[in-house]
Amino acid sequence: MMSYFFQLLVSGIVVGSIYALAALGFVLIYKSSKVLNLAHGQIIAAGAFITYALTGWVGIPIYLSFLLSMVITFFLAMSVEKIFLRRLIGEPIISIIMVTIGLMSILDGIIFLTPFGSVNFSFPQFLPQELISFGGVSISWTQLVGVIITAIMIGGFSWFFKKSTVGISMRAVSDDQFASMSVGISVPRVFGLAWATAGLSAAAAGGIIGNITGLNFETLQAFGITVFPIVILGGLDSILGAVVAGIIMGVIQQFASGYLDGNFGLNGTAEVLPYIILLIILLFKPHGLFGIHEIERV
Amino acid sequence: MSTNRWLATGNYFTSYKDEQRIFITHLDRTFFSIFISLLFIWPLLFKLSNKYMLVIDNILIAIVAIIGLNIVTGFAGLISIGHAAFMGVGAYTVASFARTLGDSHVIITHAWPLLILLSGLTGAVFGAIVGLPAMRLKHLYLAMATLSFQMIFTWTINFLEFFNQGQTIAISNVFWFTGKLGRKDHYFFWYYVLLVVVILSGFMVRNLLRTRYGRCLGAVRDNDRAADAMGIHPGLTKVYAFGLAGFFAGIAGALHAYVYRGVGFESFTLHHSITYLAMAIVGGLGTLHGSFWGPIAIMTLELQMESFAEYAGRILPSDWNLATALKPLSFGLVIVLFLMFEPRGIANWWRIARSYTKLWPFRY
Predict the structure, then answer these.
(1) Partner of B246 at 20 to 30 A CA spacing, among A103, A210, B88, B320?
(2) Which of A94, A105, A107 sits opposite B335 (nearest CB)?
(3) How far is it, in rounded angstroms, from Cα A257 to Cα B89?
(4) Which are the contacts of A160, defined by CB distance < 8 A and separation ≥ 6?
(5) Which residues, including other chains, have CB under 8 Å from residue B151's CB and lie 6 or more apart?
(6) Rg (CA), chain A
(7) What DSSP string runs through B310-339?
(8) What domains can you pick out in chain A, each with its CATH number?
(9) Digits of tens for pLDDT over chain A (298 positions)?
(10) Nearest CA to CA, how far is A173 from chain B (Å)?
(11) How far is it, in rounded angstroms, from Cα A148 to Cα A142?
């Protein structure tokens, strides 16, 4: 019984850390430009598919194609920002959010055009198949490597924001756009960079989750949409919040599917629980766990 | 008021009451009544095949839904990504009667106008509940609340045995004074019902916007602090906007259930919510006649896309999933392009065309 608990906990942390990586990009865009990017799930899916296309069809080794897909989505997200969102700076925030809804639809359409929309693929196995187990808790190599890469990337991002000049300028823009303009930071450039880094982290999350669960567009979409409850739980503008809430949500989902499903006549609770949590959070603690309290109130 | 009640050559309003008239001149009123009576007469003159009648019925259903979405997104400025779910609430209200009483119970076949109204009220209750976070929060968060309602709705329908786990729940044909409707007259009959519902809801919203309750929506959208200072409760106003949107969505959902003679969850997914949002944006947010233009434009686009996909499917390799891809692609493009280049939607073209013909041949 106890080992079942720990097994669920471990797989929850695995999924949760990937959620954290995916949510990171979302928070980044929100923090710098106050745009709620509803197309984030589709960028995650696109990252996974680009990784697969490079390995499976072009034949590049998976490590390289993982990096390459991050580079591609980096520029993809940057150009999305440049083409669509740059013109809308100064428009009411509601129309910018609706533009991201439109982008979500466009990206859906583009993915449906490719074989990924209808056929399921899975990555070639490049890691040992056997499970690593200690004390009754087992974890596959894919999961372990995924968690390690995720941890490294989250660490890298934290360093980037805390120490590097570009990261500091991004934080400055999120704090006060006029003040940062007056000290010589190019605000549009920072917006572009925020989108680009968000795309990069989304592609990384997509690549890792694609390796673990296989490439099914609907699963990846559901994974992408779960990012929204996570960022609300963590607080929309907190990177730490995104990481913590991602792990919490992953663990909750695993426990739900481990303990609730099949017990009280319930089924598939992991899919719906995040949204119930989201509604409850919105009603009682809308700034989330780590968000700044001066959120927009009526 | 000008002395000539037939032609207004300028703005001669002398009181607020004058300005709030629905029809400024007698000419407007005449044209409007001719237009409405043409809408009633034409199906008697031209017999359309059931396929196209269904398309027209679909457009009218969408118009009812978009009138609701326009209240919440256009007039009150709150994004709703769950409008299809609210429609689903209405449709499943009818379906739950069908499940408990059997699909041809007298309530469903004879008391359908009441049932449609009841679906609207259920939709309103759900809308108000989902809008409750609006008491404390602004649009960003409300988009999330409606999104989560959409996801919870889809899950609930797919999960509950009572709702046949999302499989189609049949609803039988209704009775009219002439007896049970046959297959042939089905879409024809519902065209008239839908037309009446559309006209009624159009007048309802038009009148709402002239009252205090309608104006407070716009006031809260434009500046909630100023609205608060004038004695409007911004939170309650938003909850009430969500309730109204839910009401129209519920009615549209119930009508959808009756027209299709069945309810299945696949008509109320996130994709549909986005399509409705596209309709509202294309038509023109925050205008009443935008709610009519949007569905017409998007449904026509959808038809064109379908025939194009059928045509292109013969040339292109079969693993090109064109039919499923074109819909989200074109809707997304339409949303983005309209927001970037014509944020006021087709309603604005209508306005330009109107003022052009009014002033012609003088330009200013």
Answers:
(1) A103
(2) A105
(3) 27
(4) A166, A167, A197
(5) A225, A271, A272, A275, B270
(6) 19
(7) HHHHHHS-TTS-HHHHHHHHHHHHHHHHHH
(8) 2-123+139-284 (1.10.3470)
(9) 778 888 888 888 888 988 998 898 888 888 888 888 888 889 999 988 998 888 888 888 888 888 899 999 999 999 988 988 888 877 887 788 889 999 999 998 898 888 877 777 877 777 777 777 777 777 888 888 888 888 898 888 888 888 888 888 888 888 888 888 899 888 888 889 999 999 998 998 988 888 888 888 888 888 888 888 999 898 887 888 888 999 999 999 988 888 887 777 677 788 888 899 988 888 888 777 887 765 555 4
(10) 20
(11) 10
Give the 3-state secondary structure of residue A248.
helix
**B263: phi then psi, degrees, rounded to nearest 5:** -125, 125
The answer to whether B62 touches B252, Cβ cutoff 8 Å, is yes
Domains, chain B:
48-359 (1.10.3470)
Distance separating alpha carbons of residues B316 and B321, to the nearest angstrom: 10
> Which residues, in sequence order, are CB contacts of A263 under 8 Å at separation 6+?
none
Contact B145 A84 (CB under 8 A): no
Report the C-alpha gap between B241 and A152 in whole angstroms.
46
Chain B contact for A292 (CB, 8 A cutoff):
no
Q: Do B328 and A105 touch (CB under 8 A)?
A: yes
Option in A98, A109, A278 nearest B325 (CB) = A109
Q: Which residue has the tokens 């009401």?
A: B247
